[in-house]
Amino acid sequence: MYNLFNLKRSIMWSSKISRTSFTTLDIYRRITRGVTNLAKTRQTSTSDIHLFKVGGKYHGFEAKRIESIPELKTTALYLLHEKTKAQYLHLYRNDSNNVFSVNLRTTPMNSTGLPHILEHTVLCGSEIFPVRDPFFKMLNRSLATFMNALTGPDYTMYPFSTLNYTDYLNLQKVYLDAVFRPQLKELDFMQEGWRLENVDPNDINSDIIIKGIVYNEMKGVFASNDSILGQKLQNLILPSHTYGVISGGDPQEIPNLTWNDLKNFHKQHYHPSNSRLYSYGNFPLLPSLEYIDKEYLNKYAYSPPTHTVVPKEKRWEAPKREHIKCRYDVLGAPFEKQNTISISVLASDTTDAYQTLVVDFLTNLLIKGPNSPFYESMIEPNISGGFTASTGFDSQPRDAMVTIGLQFVKKEDFDKVISIFEQTVDKVIEKGFEPHHIESVLHSYEISLAHEGSNYGLGLLFGISTAWNHTESIIEHLQSKKLIDRLKNDIKANPKFLQDNVRKIFKDNKHKLILTMSADKEFDAELAKAENQLIKKKTKGLSSKDKKVIYEKALELQKQQMEPTRTELLPTLFIDDISSDVEKVDMEKVSLNNIPTQINKVNSNGVVYFKALLNTNYLSPDQQMLLPLFCFTINKLGTDKLNYKEFDSLINRKTGGLSLNSHIGESLYSLHTYQPSLLLSSYALERNVESMWDIWNQLFTMRGLKDVDRFKMLVELYMSNLSNGITDSGHVYAMQAASSLVSGTAYQVELLSGLQHISYMKSLVSTSNYKAILKEILNIAEILFDKKKMRVALNLAPDNQRDIIRTYENFIATLPQATATHLQSDDTFVVGDVWSPTEAVNCQHHVLNLPVNYCSKAVLTVPFTHADYAKLKILSRLLSSKYLHPELREKQGAYGGGARVMSDGVFTFYSYRDPRNLDTLDVFDNSYNWIRSEIDKITPQDIFEAKLGVFQSVDTPIPQSSKGNEEFLKGLTTDIKQRYRAELLSVGKNDLTEVAEKYLGPGNMLQTGKVVLGPKTEQMDVSKRKDEMWTVVESNL
What we know:
- The chain is an alpha+beta fold.
- The strands form 5 sheets. Strands 2, 3, 4, 5, 6, 7, 8, 9 and 12 form a 9-stranded mixed β-sheet that branches.
- Helix 9 (353-367) crosses helix 14 (480-493), helix 12 (435-450) packs parallel to helix 19 and helix 27 packs across helix 32 (974-986).
- It is globular.
């Protein structure tokens, strides 16, 4: 996977619909969820950290440093391999979700995608495990909570995490062998990287084109204008070394890469002396050190990795300005506003932990929220669509940078933005920052240390990897409290400390890049022309013999892809490794001041987590459509007591933020049935819990807001970000759209968060009647902010439960309530409408100017509690691994694809960054025939592996903040989960054929919807497709 943006960059809040059955399906993305433990897979702490002493020798490693880091509840152990000088960092923490990673400094000097294609190819088989695609095969032989590989600008990393010690050792063996002893076969290089191949591999006379997984992936990556800008920014501001090229690969340059280049790059960069090994958790370390030394490191001699060292960029003597072109986004702002400007400066050396913190802190002060200087000067005047995705502090390169960028601006405003930037910097240097604003940013650091989010050990790895890539002194980067205390002391000792640093970094710094970008309606046509020219160049002068070689290589690759894989060579878990019991949450359900309240008693680390569901069934259909906009704007308008700046300051000084989201809770028992709600959530340190209640009280009781200009600015910010996620998550949009054709529940989700929502909002905003829209938003607030419509979940530490509950009851007593409504109960469900055709399958082609497609097929099946649901769940996993992955990724070159069944009863197929469209739909349709023809070849081990794959998600570790969520949001009680668990474990071969026949067979054809998101091409000729009724949706939304 290519990772362009900073591993450490925080995700900005957004107002999105939450759907209880749905999580983003991109299994190739980098974070799954979870910290904590699970029943049988839980490992009691067997850590041997107490055996290590500084200076001690352990299986070829010497312990160089041991440091306790109390704020992380961690002990850091830094070791150095004596023979190869490989670095090893182990972070002991009493957390059973253990992590391991091999990191390498990879510094390409061209844009052929060398490290990225190598990352893919090393995972295609190794010396001990000569299995085709062992990485994906292990996804079904493991209970890993995370498995991936990532390529960055100057690093490649191979991380995984799991709660099971046997699983940990299995995955460690597979990863180490893949990294240090890969096969690197030519056919795998052709499959993963690029190749010339006939359009029809079985017809030597068909046209020759370029195929390859990474080739198509990078075409998809650069379908995003954010990626175009971010990549070009990095290349231009750091031009002299490895950052001046595209490590992921430029599609125009990838076909210049040779197999020998790949093998040589591995030899040079995948040496232990150039590696950094990482582990985290409570598993024993000594056995791993012994295995790593004996089987791998001890077999190498030291090789100084001087050739991978990244020098500091020579600083410029004067700022530079560049202009580039990008894709016209048919879903975005008006064409005249599809322009972007970014102003970037090189700031600090990433290896300097303290200076990195200082620059990060300054950046947050400058851009975070309406009290920040750049927000006030650049966002409030409403001259743009808000900050760009690249805005912020980027510590991924050796020389970290800060970028301030605006999207959707007029070209004639470029110089105005530059002038505003300079004036803002001057004003900050002169006047400094408001004390409350400094306090709020400091508080965000403090609460982030206390809040334990997803996969904690993985988060620590991502947080330090970019700095560790260039220094051995990495423990300092983990000592957050020491660094923050030093910052506080420096601010106290020198009142001008922050202004002096602003002057140094933003005023006197000559290494400044002004990069502007404008949409070009011919951009896609020019890309297509360039690709055609590249193909002509590659095929020009090919003799009949050359063409025969290309044809035969394609057949050879096809033969390899069709051969059965020797998965028995790979390690695996066994049925006993799957717990038969679900993890139970210490939960209490009570009624407090007549509000149904679920109290989840957890190890919250001094944080109180609040969630509330408000029944939205009282809203009119038009108000329901406005709910996502309501969620985005309502907490940014101020209250009757505080203006929006004061309110934002209070939120950030006292909480981790307020979140409001539309929420659709599917019925576990009936199709097309759902519970529509508004989900509120926030968290605060225990000392600030009463302030958190006061903040929500102010929001519930506000009535007199009339700032139409502020509201208009927020609406335009909302609109500017509506379509930004399509290129990265197009498969999600495709699945939502396809599901909406068969399910009333999914249709409601589509209305509130899919392509239909974008269309509705663009139509609404075109009226420009912001005063009327604001009035309706406030009407929604008056209807919904009623405690009689509310039920609550609290996650808190039992030690302080009594005091916290007392403050909560006082808070509830102050909330408004209407007299004409009823208490919300668990059975306030709505039956949605759904249209089912009587003669043909309902199909849609959403025409988007993208270089790749996102395809989906949706089939209506059964609700979650139906006996067939567990069988369909196992079937979806089996189809994904045994059929769809080989067909879509290996043969067609799509970056990803698979099948899922959702708890609303929709069975969905999907493809991601796919060069095909109708061919992919045919692959989906053929799933039924594949099951019928292959069922006799399906072994008990195949079915067990499908179960393991399902249990990876079922048993995903849950952070303390989210314990009890499944019951609160979905109604999934322990009894229901226990029954579902037993049903999954009992699924057999006959069950799979039964549900395939019942739901995927021709008898259920009319309960199907199909969607393609992608360009209008000759491939999309639907005129000859039988039993399908197509609607073409031109994206002039």
